[in-house]
Amino acid sequence: MVISSCAQELKSLELSNKLSILNDRAYFNFPDSAKNMARPVGIMSADHNINKETRVLFDVGPKRLVFFAQELYRFSGDNFLEQILAEDNGEEQGITGKVLSKETSLFSYLSVPGDFDSTLNAIFVSSLLVKTKDGSIFRVDAYINPAAYSLRNEYISLVERIFTTLSPGKRKNLREARTEKLKIFGTKKSFVFEVPENYSIAVDQKYDFQVFKFIKYRDYEDTSWVSLTIYVGSHPSMFHKEYGFESATEMQTLDFLGKEVKCLYFANKEKNLYLKEQQIPSDNIKNGLIVHIAMSSNRKELIDELGGIATRIKLEQ
After folding, report:
1. Are residues 121 and 254 in the same domain?
2. How far apart are the C-alpha atoms of 292 and 279, rounded to whole Å?
3. What global pTM score does this model have?
4. Residues 124 and 210 in one domain
5. What range does the domain containing 210 cover?
6. Per-residue DSSP letters for 249-312?
7. Can you tell me the distance from the alpha carbon of 306 to that of 90, in angstroms, rounded to the nearest whole number?
């Protein structure tokens, strides 16, 4: 009787709470008590970037529904549906999918798994891929907790209702080549970046450090990836051990702010993993400051592309 009552409540919920996704990239209408709450982070970690992810929680007593949106840094054109279907192993995995919106400004595709792992604390129940007017793509995944599992079908229906309220936001992703001048936290100086086409810069900071991260937009079917991270602070950490490297393959040079820097270069051809990094004392920016540059990719030639971006960085007052 209690389950039946809860099921009916879920079916009759009004969706009048319009919340932003990915900092005004899009909007959905949620139940009134749904809240936008960022994932918690450690005291020494930067807060999650609102342009990269959004988390919305909806609780009914002990039952919880979670929406987690992520910028995918991918783009597509008129063949997006064909690309989705080409990678979909729906028949093998029992996944069902359908187009929810075919609007010019927003195309969306819903996927629902056939099987659910009820042993998890966060049980995946559906996912929505969204292509915006500028061609870039984000994804929203929905999860329930074990307390809500007995009503999973009702929650799946509620999620689809929420997904159908999708509306466009005003923020667009910049993908054209451009120059960006960004202030260096805690100093009077700024970095001037020559940003190539299809690159984005995400900026994260905490009490005593700042991170500039270059991310490359790629076609939905492109399996390559790159990451250029520039840490500015006093307590940097090298990345190579996190990637599974113990010793450098060789030393390579990098021109940075007019100086030749010797960098550690790591390569694992079997795993298609390449990394180039170094910590650079930067008293010319601020006394005691250290800049840590790290370039990584699954393609060797893209390390050179990232190095070119780093070489063109300028320092200005």
Report:
1. no
2. 4
3. 0.89
4. no
5. 178-316
6. SEEEEEEETTEEEEEEEEEETTTTEEEEEEEEE-TTTSTT-EEEEEEEESSHHHHHHHHHHHHT
7. 37
Structure tokens at 248: 């450098």
- Burial of residue 159 (CB within 10 Å: 0-12, 13-18, 19+) is buried
H/E stretch holding 3 reads: helix 2-11
- How many CB atoms lie under 10 A from the CB of residue 130? 24
Q: Do both 141 and 228 map to the same domain?
A: no
Whole-number pLDDT of residue 220? 95
Whole-number pLDDT of residue 46:
65
Does residue 235 share a domain with residue 112? Answer: no
For 162, the 3-state DSSP assignment is: helix
- Does 138 share its domain with 196? no
Angle between helices 152-163 and 2-11 (to 10 degrees): 10
Walking along the chain (317 residues) 10 residues at a time, the average pLDDT comes out as 67 93 96 92 73 96 96 94 79 79 89 92 96 95 96 96 96 94 94 97 88 95 96 94 94 95 97 97 94 97 96 95
| DSSP SS3 for 93 | helix
Q: Is 173 a member of any domain?
A: no
Please tell me the distance from the alpha carbon of residue 49 to that of residue 108, in angstroms, as a whole number.
23
Among 217, 214, 218, residue whose Cα is nearest residue 193: 214
Extract the tokens encoding 156: 């799946």
Provide the number of structural domains found in the chain.
Answer: 2
Distance from chain centroid for Cα 299: 20
Query: Is residue 65 included in any domain, yes or no?
Result: yes
Quick one: 8 and 140 in the same domain?
Answer: yes
Minimal CA–CA distance to 249: which of 235, 229, 270?
270
In this structure, what DSSP letter does residue 135 have? Answer: S
Residues 155 and 244 in one domain: no
Q: Are 167 and 19 spatial neighbours (Cβ–Cβ below 8 Å)?
A: no
Cα–Cα distance measured from residue 49 to residue 53, given in angstroms and rounded to the nearest whole number: 6
Contact status, residue 280 vs residue 289, Cβ threshold 8 Å: no
**Token pair listed for 269:** 């051809």
Residue 158: DSSP 8-state: H
